[in-house]
Write a structure and sequence with these properties.
Blueprint: H1 8-21, E1 25-27, H2 28-39, H3 57-71, E2 75-76, E3 82-85, H4 88-91
Antiparallel strand pairs: 1-3, 2-3
Helix pairs in contact: 1-2, 1-3
């Protein structure tokens, strides 16, 4: 079965790359703009559809990827509206 939209796992390495290039953190809206450029050739037609809550599917998947990266200790949830890599000391867990 082919996927209708991109899985969160696809966004994980892209998110890390964008944040590394940005110096470790980005405002959420800026993050989505950068991520859309980086992921453009990977996005599926269904990604531009909205979820029942009205959010674009690819943004929803990216947010789920962010939560997974936070759980894995690669990102931190320090300030609302900011996507941030975990510092070396935070990654040691």
């Amino acid at each position: 079965m082919t996927r209708r939209w991109t899985a969160p796992e696809v966004f994980k390495p892209l998110i890390l790359t964008v944040l590394e290039q940005a110096g470790g953190e980005l405002d959420a809206e800026e993050m989505f703009l950068e991520l859309e450029l980086v992921a453009e050739d990977r996005l599926l037609p269904g990604d531009s559809e909205s979820t029942p809550e009205g959010e674009l599917r690819w943004r929803y998947a990216a947010r789920r990827a962010r939560l997974a990266l936070i759980e894995e200790g690669l990102m931190t949830k320090s300030r609302p509206g900011v996507w941030q890599l975990a510092g070396p000391s935070q990654r040691l867990g």
